[in-house]
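Why do we care about 3D structure at all? Because function follows from shape, and shape follows, mostly, from sequence. That is the central idea of this module. The next example makes it concrete: a single protein chain, its amino acid sequence, and then its structure expressed as tokens.
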Amino acid sequence: MGNYDVKQEVTDKYSLRGRVFHKIREDILSGKYKEHEELKEVAIGEELGVSRTPVREAFRQLELEGLIQIIPNKGAYVTGITVKDVKDIYMIRSLLEGLCARWATENITEEQLEEMEENVYLAEFHASKGHLEQIAELDNRFHDIMYEACNSKMLQHSLRDYHEYVLRVRKKTLSDANRGEASNHEHRLIMEAIKAKDAARAEELANRHMINAYENMVKNGLEEAYKQQESSEEEKAK
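And the structure:
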């Protein structure tokens, strides 16, 4: 198995159980574990350097989130994220991101606003050079700054969870240079509204930003990608 020792990850703020949960969830969302694949407590415990107990507890939490299904006397199986889940997440995120932008307008510090402006300028520079990886990283950081600026740990937690759920799909859409540039332009408008203390405008723009991101994924073959994945898994199962 791998040599990832979750107990040594001292920078993680979560308990051992929480760290195991987040690592397994990350592996599911990154595609390491495929839909319908069985998750084995012993193997995962050995890989993470922990006993079966925190793995079993993580499985229960993952089942509550709908990422796995535990079948009595059989095992735990990955359910993953469906096309409908992606749509639902983005529609929910659009509302929460709007609220986040509104609250960020009211609570953002000078330092956070300066970092947000610098983020937009850097993203524009990298877009002009075609540096897609840097654009994706800066896109993630823009949202992080806004989450931190909203001054609500509850909203920040919810948004980061949804962000994780669709990160793999979202990275795929941001690999499109046109969407990367459009996304950063939308970030600039949100930043300018926050800077102008126009909370209603910031909320409207952040809401629309998420809807645009989802519509771009649909346009670029979101459903077809999932159908191909399902077909591949069905072939393997035969």
